[in-house]
């Protein structure tokens, strides 16, 4: 009498259940999304220590959310000691920056030691996305794009502090990424900048250093303005190579 027997073609349900594993999706709520965007601006130095964020009503308009959402987001940043609220006529929500005293510098160096592997990976990743971004920017930049890049260079030349100089330096690279009009390149440039931010801040600054950066930025902008993609990529390669050399010197000194 014939009986049904399992065949090799039958799926092994137990094996499938073990082999396939999915993580649940963590959906960010609106105030968490806002908080994350504000954190990135702080991390990139686009809002410097001691500077206020725009008023709550303006932030609500920028993000397209209610003021309650903005208030919840700012509370998250306060709990992380990234911002503080001040009352009065000159009140608002102000960024708390890392102190530039001995203790603050010690914390910065400790963070660099703990993230050396990430810094190494970012140094490999950065030229990939930045060179692609500047090539695309040189191909399609319009007058509005060029004016935004020029504003970053002007801001650097008029900077009164190292943090202000660093802020406009960051903005220069982000504006070129935005000029590529490619969200993936823009996100990649921003991500690499975030990972390298502390290493860049830890570099010893000097007037000679500032002049060299200004000269290299100007060469990149001239190539973009001329829509010369080959010259723009060459200028960016040189600029990033100098930056990488300085960052590696900082990291090597930590050993």
The parts where pLDDT drops under 50 for at least 5 residues are none
Query: How many strands, what sense, and barrel or not for the largest sheet?
Result: 2 strands, antiparallel
Query: What is the CATH fold-level name of the largest domain?
Result: Four Helix Bundle (Hemerythrin (Met), subunit A)
Secondary structure: helix percent: 55-70%
Strand content: under 5%
The CATH architecture designation of the largest domain is Up-down Bundle
Q: Structurally, how many domains make up the residues?
A: 2
Give the H and E element order: HHHHEEHHHHHHH
Number of helices: 11
Question: What would you say this structure looks like, in words?
Answer:
- The protein has eleven helices and two strands, in the order H-H-H-H-E-E-H-H-H-H-H-H-H.
- It has two domains: 30-95, Arc Repressor Mutant, subunit A (Orthogonal Bundle); 102-252, Up-down Bundle (Four Helix Bundle (Hemerythrin (Met), subunit A)), CATH 1.20.120.530.
- The radius of gyration is 23 Å and the shape is globular.
- It has a two-stranded antiparallel sheet.
- Strand 1 and strand 2 form a beta hairpin.
- With 255 residues, the chain is mostly helical.
- The longest helix has 25 residues, at 116-140.
- The model has no long low-confidence stretch (mean pLDDT 85).
List the helices and strands and how they pair.
Layout lengths: L12 H7 L10 H14 L12 H8 L3 H13 L3 E4 L5 E4 L6 H13 L1 H25 L2 H15 L4 H18 L3 H19 L5 H19 L3 H24 L3
Antiparallel strand pairs: 1-2
Q: Characteristics of this structure?
A:
about 260 residues; mainly alpha; Arc Repressor Mutant, subunit A; Four Helix Bundle (Hemerythrin (Met), subunit A); two-stranded antiparallel sheet; 11 helices; 2 strands; globular
């Amino acid at each position: 009498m014939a009986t049904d027997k399992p065949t090799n073609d039958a799926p092994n349900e137990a094996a499938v259940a073990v082999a396939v594993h999915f993580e649940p999706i963590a959906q960010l709520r609106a105030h968490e999304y806002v908080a994350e965007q504000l954190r990135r601006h702080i991390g990139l130095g686009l809002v410097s220590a001691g500077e206020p964020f725009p008023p709550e009503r303006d932030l609500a308009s920028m993000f397209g959310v209610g003021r309650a959402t903005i208030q919840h987001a700012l509370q998250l940043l306060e709990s992380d000691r990234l911002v503080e609220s001040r009352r009065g006529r000159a009140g608002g929500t102000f960024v708390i920056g890392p102190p530039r005293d001995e203790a603050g510098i010690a914390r910065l160096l400790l963070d660099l030691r703990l993230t050396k592997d990430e810094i190494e990976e970012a140094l490999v990743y950065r030229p990939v996305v930045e060179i692609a971004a500047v090539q695309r920017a040189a191909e399609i930049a319009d007058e509005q794009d060029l004016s935004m890049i020029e504003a970053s260079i002007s801001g650097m030349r008029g900077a009164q502090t190292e943090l202000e100089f660093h802020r406009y330096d960051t903005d220069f690279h982000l504006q070129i990424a935005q000029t590529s009009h490619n969200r993936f390149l823009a996100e990649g440039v921003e991500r690499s900048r975030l990972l390298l931010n502390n290493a860049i801040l830890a570099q010893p600054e000097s007037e000679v250093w500032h002049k060299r950066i200004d000269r290299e930025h100007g060469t990149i902008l001239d190539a973009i303005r001329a829509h010369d993609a080959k010259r723009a990529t060459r200028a960016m390669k040189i600029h990033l190579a100098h930056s990488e050399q300085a960052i590696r010197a900082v990291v090597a000194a930590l050993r």
